[in-house]
């Protein structure tokens, strides 16, 4: 109901307008009713009103009938106000949605609306009224397309609407407002039309596009005889094709009434079409054909017009073409880049603004990795195409190169064009990095490309690249030497199969790009038989077998996409609504259809024109004659036309050549006329005349269009008219534009790019203007400009940084270590120069740090360098580490390194820190000589000059670069500012992650790890650099040996230690020498401080034990660690060893705790030897002894038994020490010895000992006694007891008494008893009895020479010694009696007993008796009494136990009688006593 009321209301409005403004209205009221009824418009409106009175639903009425009265008013040539009212009513119906795609007969209604508005007629009294009608018409047209029922419009209706809109905006004398409104209407129409493209639509040429809204009901389309469904087919691809052709035609500058404004409008509308349709437009071949041919040609032609706005629009169209239909424009895109971008970018006649637009467009292209990859894939890897990717790299590099006067005025390096070119290069790098690189290898896009491309495609690309390189070499050689180069070209392989085969030579001439046209002409015109044969085959290659025609018949050609209807007389006209075809008549056209050449029957001049495009004709008449003759024969045999024989063809061809020379030679003043030309050929066609129309056409074309030799360059604008058809044909034959490329090809792409831009990028990075503003004034009027420039420089710096990251990423992916290493080395050397400025500037340490905090260039270089080293240095950097270590050492010198890197590990004893040799702060490090090429005085001078100029830069930009404003400077003093800048520098270095750089080397590549080790080793052992130059004795200039301070060397060895510890899993790998070189460096430092230890020597010791402690090695390599730990004792002199003793002991303790397996021989023996050196160290003796005691208590093998005993014994006080000197309690040492002695029975398997001997202080006279026949445990047992007995000879009484007590504990109280009788025999004869003799000798010596320095101690000493001798003698007899059963098992017990008796007889003599054989012994009464009593007790026990009787049986002699005989010799009275005691019981029994 609402729709009906709306229509009724509009009927009233239009009727009112008609009544007031109708052309036949009269002032006379008399005849008004009659005239009103006679007006057909009023009658139609009344009829519609009456029809609506009987219904409430507008959908039940035919929509076409509803609109018909209003449309009649639009087309009825009424008053402008009436037309406006009708337009307004129609627009209102559409806008309110009263007509939809499902309305009854909606298609007919929409078509009628479109055609009615297109045929709108009205009478306007003023221009204002007309413009109002036009504006209403435009509104209605746009709404007609935009409304839901707009999808029902037919092709012709849409074309009529677009035409009407353009007609309105093209009318003269309209306001700018109306023209702008019409332009906007066109834009909306194009947007709606091309928005209908559906991605699901199949490519079907003329097939209609799917409905974008709900499709109309078929019954409405088919209802009524006047509206058949076939008449109202909704518009589709064909409409878009015609509209696109119309828009492209607007861009044509050669069109009648064309203007720059119209061309810009056409470009804008084309852009709108592409932006709306997107990539869907490439799914429809009719649209693609228009784009490939007309649109691309117009874009190429418009690029020559000197108009910035038009150029900008055309560049955007090129970009839109790439984004939407690049797969169909493989050839055209090549033309655009070469003929638009590069031509304008390097053209001398191009303005700055034009170049800027072109470079901005290229930067946008370079940001698209699909384009960059596509350029290489489709052109550089295609034989018939140019190396577009490489040419683009070279072009951008040439444009970005800084001017030659950079040194004097560096501001020229940053003009807009150079910056844009640099951005293009950096964008290409980043595109490659995104496509082929990632942090862990190939990117996801690269993997997709690898899956998309088959191995066959990859192989084809590689083969094409190789073949293209060969063809390039062949073309270059041919252009230099002509036909003489064929032998060389044959040797290349795959280019020319035979150098004497004319067919092969012709194939080479036709298929090889880049050949010199003049050389080809010389070859074809030569008189040599082979060359003449080549000429014949060459000309024949332009043809194919074509049936001969008896008479000349023109060929009609129908342009694709344009419907033509014949009028019966041979002429044709365009269908209504289609754009006019202004192209020249296609009849009599000789077409070159493919690369091999196809001639269709036509005129001689056109065939000759095609031939002349391929080579430059030689100037000699004979050569020209031969070529003309060959051409005539070939042309006549294939396409005779009106020619009667070959002679006629030859004469006509020759005449054409003469006419061409006459018409286009500037020296010929009098030109040949058309009648003269025709007259000269009279009767030459086999005595007949050539057709006049035929000759007329030849004359007109020859005189107006000169023969041109095509350069062969794709898209040459000078040849665009001649070569465009050929280019379009080639575009249809070539494959699609490919954007997939295997990652393996990215390596070559990057190499091509980096070879041209490496030095250029680094040049910009070095420019100081990149970091500071050149404008030194800071006035308010220039502050904004300066800030803007500063912001641009910072953005450029960030882009350069990102570009370098992209380079590093690609180098990492493709293992281009030499490129990445060179890049990082460049950054490091530049940073070294910047740090030199800070170091050589003088001043305090904080002032130097402030210089670094002020320099943005140094900070940026540092951030880049260490960030890249952290990401890629461990796998790819090599020589860079030499420079990086130099940088770190410079940071160390500037005190910029973070605290975490300066903290040093040190040992402690008993949880107390050890005193360091570094009591005072180390002096400032000596100046390190950089590893660059310039050294010595020259380097110092140049660095100083650089510093002088740079310091001015720093002072000038100090406030701006550091974030300081003038108000800040006024509010605080210079010292506060310097402190803040120094803090900024320290904070920057703290963010570089230098501490983690050394401890994260576990995953580094061997080459990188080796180089950083060599760099640090060079610092830690500077003498090596001096030795390495000894071979260069003949060099005139020798580098001074590098010198480093102790603090720097200490820093280096700390880093070496961290690296080896981090790589503990491969520290002993032969391929990567880590541990051994570092130990060698540390040992060389120890050797240097062997006499006078320094703080460096101290750190070397700590690092040495850190290495030994933290490395986990198999048992087979544990010996190397032990040897390393023992090296300080071997290298250091006593003074140095004493100074570093506490750290060595602490290191040994830590080492043993981390390597418990070291308690097995032979490692433990070396540790015993090392620890023994600390026996007299006042601070290290106790911890050293505790370590030895721990080792001996956990001894797992008897092999180190003797070493353990010897090591424990070394801790006894020396013989000449004072009584107060006692570092280790004596009882502790003896406790450890007894504990070790008790371990003998715990060893189940003891290795056979070949050399068993007593300790060096053995009491035995035979210190090298052979015990091979004894059991293994017995030998250790004897060694232990012998050691204790030897200690009884110590000069200190406490030691002797405790030693005797220890012997008692070992022989009488231990649970285990040696069961070997021979061992007991040895114990008594070689150990214990000599011990007693030694004690007696000590007493004798004491009586002769009293101890120096001791007062009133002679009597006490004598009494103590007597007691000790008595105790020793008593112990001997006690042990003898306790183990008599074991001794009794001796086979030669009789001999043993007699020897034992002979050994003690001197102790039983009375003091006044005759001396024994040992004259040195002085008899003592007390000793004699105790020994005699012990002997008597022993004899009695032996006699009572039957020992004598058993031994007598074994020996065959009476042992007791022998004993009496011996005793009788020195104590007859004792014998009597013994006999009484021995025989007393027998007498009593008798």
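^ structure tokens above, recovered residues below v
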């Amino acid at each position: 109901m609402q729709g009906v009321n709306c229509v009724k209301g509009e009927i009233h409005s239009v009727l009112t307008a008609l009544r007031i403004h109708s052309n036949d209205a009269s002032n006379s009221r008399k005849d008004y009713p009659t005239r009103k009824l006679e007006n057909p418009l009023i009658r139609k409106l009344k009829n519609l009103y009456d029809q609506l009175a009987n219904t409430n639903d507008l959908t039940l009425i035919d929509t076409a009938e509803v609109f018909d009265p209003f449309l009649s008013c639009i087309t009825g040539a009424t008053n402008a106000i009436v037309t406006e009212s009708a337009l307004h009513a129609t627009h209102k119906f559409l806008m309110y949605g009263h007509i939809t795609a499902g309305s009854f007969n909606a298609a007919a209604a929409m078509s009628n609306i479109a055609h009615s508005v297109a045929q709108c007629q009205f009478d306007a009294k003023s221009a204002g009224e007309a413009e109002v009608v036009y504006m209403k018409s435009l509104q209605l047209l746009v709404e007609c397309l935009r409304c839901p029922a707009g999808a029902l419009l037919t092709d012709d209706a849409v074309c009529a609407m677009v035409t009407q809109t353009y007609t309105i905006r093209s009318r003269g004398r309209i306001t700018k407002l109306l023209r702008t409104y019409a332009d906007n209407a066109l834009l909306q129409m194009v947007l709606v039309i091309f928005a209908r493209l559906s991605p699901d639509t199949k490519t079907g040429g003329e097939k209609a596009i799917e409905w974008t809204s709900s499709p109309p009901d078929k019954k409405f389309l088919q209802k009524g005889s006047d509206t058949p469904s076939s008449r109202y087919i909704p518009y589709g691809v064909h409409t878009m094709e015609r509209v696109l052709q119309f828009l492209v035609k607007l861009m044509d500058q050669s069109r009648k009434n064309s203007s720059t404004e119209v061309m810009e409008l056409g470009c804008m509308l084309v852009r709108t079409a592409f932006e709306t349709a997107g990539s869907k437009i490439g799914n429809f071949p009719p649209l693609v054909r228009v784009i490939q041919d007309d649109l691309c040609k117009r874009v190429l032609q418009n690029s020559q017009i000197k108009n910035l706005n038009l150029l900008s629009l055309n560049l955007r169209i090129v970009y839109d073409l790439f984004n939407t239909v690049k797969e169909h424009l493989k050839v055209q895109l090549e033309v655009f880049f070469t003929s638009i971008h590069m031509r304008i970018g390097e053209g001398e006649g191009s303005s700055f603004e034009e170049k800027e637009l072109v470079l901005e467009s290229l930067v946008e292209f370079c940001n698209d990795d699909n384009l960059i990859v596509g350029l290489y894939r489709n052109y550089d890897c295609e034989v018939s195409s140019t190396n577009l990717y490489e040419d683009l790299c070279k072009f951008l590099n040439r444009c970005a190169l800084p001017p030659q006067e950079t040194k004097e005025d560096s501001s020229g390096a940053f003009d807009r064009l150079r910056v844009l070119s640099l951005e293009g290069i950096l964008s290409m790098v980043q595109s490659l990095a995104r496509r082929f690189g990632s942090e862990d290898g190939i990117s996801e896009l690269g993997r997709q490309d690898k899956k998309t491309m088959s191995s066959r495609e990859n192989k084809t690309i590689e083969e094409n690249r190789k073949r293209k390189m060969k063809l390039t070499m062949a073309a270059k050689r041919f252009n230099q030497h002509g036909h003489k180069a064929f032998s060389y070209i044959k040797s290349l392989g795959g280019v020319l199969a035979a150098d004497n085969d004319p067919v092969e030579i012709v194939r080479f001439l036709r298929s090889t790009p880049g050949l010199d046209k003049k050389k080809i002409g010389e070859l074809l015109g030569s008189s040599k038989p082979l060359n003449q044969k080549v000429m014949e085959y060459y000309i024949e290659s332009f043809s194919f077998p074509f049936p001969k025609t008896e008479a000349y018949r023109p060929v009609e050609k129908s342009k694709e996409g344009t419907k033509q209807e014949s009028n019966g007389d041979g002429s044709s006209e365009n269908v209504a609504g289609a754009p006019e075809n202004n192209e020249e008549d296609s009849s009599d056209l000789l077409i070159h259809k493919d690369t091999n050449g196809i001639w269709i029957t036509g005129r001689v001049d056109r065939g000759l024109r095609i031939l002349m495009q391929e080579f430059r004709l030689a100037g000699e008449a004979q050569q020209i004659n031969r070529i003309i003759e060959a051409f005539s024969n070939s042309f006549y045999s294939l396409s005779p036309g009106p020619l009667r024989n070959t002679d006629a063809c030859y004469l006509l061809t020759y005449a054409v050549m003469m006419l061409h020379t006459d018409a286009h030679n500037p020296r010929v003043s009098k030109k040949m006329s058309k009648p003269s030309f025709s007259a000269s050929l009279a009767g030459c066609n086999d005595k007949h005349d050539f057709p006049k129309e035929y000759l007329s056409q030849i004359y007109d074309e020859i005189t107006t269009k000169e023969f041109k030799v095509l350069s062969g360059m794709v898209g040459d604008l000078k040849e665009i008219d001649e070569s465009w058809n050929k280019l379009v044909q080639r575009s249809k034959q070539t494959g699609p534009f490919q954007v997939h490329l295997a990652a393996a090809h990215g390596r070559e792409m990057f190499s091509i790019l980096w070879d041209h831009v490496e030095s250029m990028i680094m040049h910009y990075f070095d420019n100081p203007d990149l970091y500071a503003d050149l404008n030194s004034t800071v006035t308010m009027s220039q502050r904004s400009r300066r800030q803007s420039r500063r912001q641009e420089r910072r953005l450029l710096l960030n882009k350069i940084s990102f570009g370098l990251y992209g380079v590093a990423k690609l180098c990492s992916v493709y293992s281009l270590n030499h490129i990445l290493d060179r890049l990082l080395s460049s950054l490091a050397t530049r940073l070294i120069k910047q740090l030199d400025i800070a170091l050589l500037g003088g001043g305090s340490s904080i002032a130097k740090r402030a210089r670094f905090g002020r320099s943005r260039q140094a900070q940026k270089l540092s951030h880049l360098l260490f960030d890249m080293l952290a990401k890629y240095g461990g796998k790819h950097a090599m020589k860079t580490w030499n420079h990086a270590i130099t940088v770190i050492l410079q940071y160390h010198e500037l005190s910029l390194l973070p605290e975490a890197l300066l903290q040093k590990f040190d040992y402690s004893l008993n949880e107390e820190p050890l005193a360091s040799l570094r009591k005072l702060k180390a002096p400032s490090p000596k100046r390190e000589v950089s590893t660059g090429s310039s050294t010595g005085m020259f380097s110092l001078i140049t660095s100083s000059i650089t510093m002088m100029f740079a310091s001015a830069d720093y002072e000038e930009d100090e406030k701006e670069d550091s974030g300081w404003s003038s108000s800040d400077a006024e509010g605080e003093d210079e010292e506060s500012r310097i402190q803040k800048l120094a803090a900024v520098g320290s904070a920057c270095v703290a963010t570089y992650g230098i501490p983690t750089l050394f401890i994260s080397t576990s995953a580094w590549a061997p080459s990188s790890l080796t180089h950083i080790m060599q760099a640090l080793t060079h610092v830690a052992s500077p003498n090596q650099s001096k030795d390495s130059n000894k071979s260069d004795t003949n060099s005139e200039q020798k580098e001074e040996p590098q010198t480093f301070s102790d603090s720097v060397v200490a820093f280096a060895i700390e880093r070496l230690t961290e690296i080896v510890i981090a790589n503990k899993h491969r520290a002993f790998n032969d391929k990567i020498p880590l541990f051994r070189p570092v130990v060698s460096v540390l040992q060389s430092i120890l050797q240097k401080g062997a006499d006078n230890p320094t703080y460096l020597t101290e750190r070397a010791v700590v690092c040495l034990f850190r290495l030994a402690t933290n490395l986990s090695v198999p048992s087979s390599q544990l010996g190397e660690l032990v040897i390393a730990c023992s090296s300080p004792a071997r290298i250091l002199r006593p003074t140095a060893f004493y100074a570093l003793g506490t750290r060595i002991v602490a290191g040994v303790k830590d080492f043993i705790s981390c390597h418990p397996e070291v308690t097995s021989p032979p490692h433990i023996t070396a540790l015993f030897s090392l620890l023994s050196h600390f026996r007299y160290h006042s601070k290290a003796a106790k911890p050293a002894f505790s370590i030895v005691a721990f080792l001996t208590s956990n001894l797992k093998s008897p092999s180190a038994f003797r070493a353990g005993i010897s090591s424990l014994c070394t801790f006894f006080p020396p013989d000449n020490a004072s009584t107060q000197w006692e570092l280790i309690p004596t009882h502790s040492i003896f406790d450890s010895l007894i504990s070790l002695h008790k371990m003998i029975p715990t060893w189940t398997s003891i290795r056979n000992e070949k050399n068993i001997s007593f300790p060096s202080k053995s009491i035995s006279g035979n210190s090298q006694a052979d015990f091979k026949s004894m059991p293994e445990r017995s030998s250790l047992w004897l060694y232990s007891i012998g050691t204790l007995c030897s200690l009884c000879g110590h000069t200190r009484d406490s030691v002797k008494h405790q030693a005797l007590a220890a012997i008692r504990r070992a022989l009488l109280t231990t649970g285990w008893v040696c069961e070997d009788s021979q061992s007991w025999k040895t114990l008594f004869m070689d150990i214990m009895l000599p011990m007693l003799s030694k004690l007696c000798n000590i007493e004798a010596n004491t009586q002769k020479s009293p101890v120096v320095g001791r007062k009133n101690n002679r009597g006490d000493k004598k009494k103590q010694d007597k007691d000790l001798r008595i105790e020793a003698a008593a112990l001997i007899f006690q042990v003898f009696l306790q183990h008599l059963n074991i001794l009794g098992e001796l086979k030669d017990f009789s001999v043993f007993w007699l020897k034992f008796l002979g050994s003690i007889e001197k102790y039983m003599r009375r003091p006044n008796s005759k001396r024994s054989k040992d004259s040195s012994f002085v008899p003592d009464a007390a000793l004699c009494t105790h020994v005699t009593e012990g002997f008597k007790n022993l004899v009695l026990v032996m006699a009572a136990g039957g020992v004598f009787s058993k031994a007598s049986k074994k020996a065959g002699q009476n042992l007791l009688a022998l004993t009496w005989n011996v005793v009788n010799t020195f104590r007859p009275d004792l014998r009597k006593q013994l006999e009484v005691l021995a025989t007393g019981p027998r007498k009593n029994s008798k």
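The radius of gyration is 57 Å.
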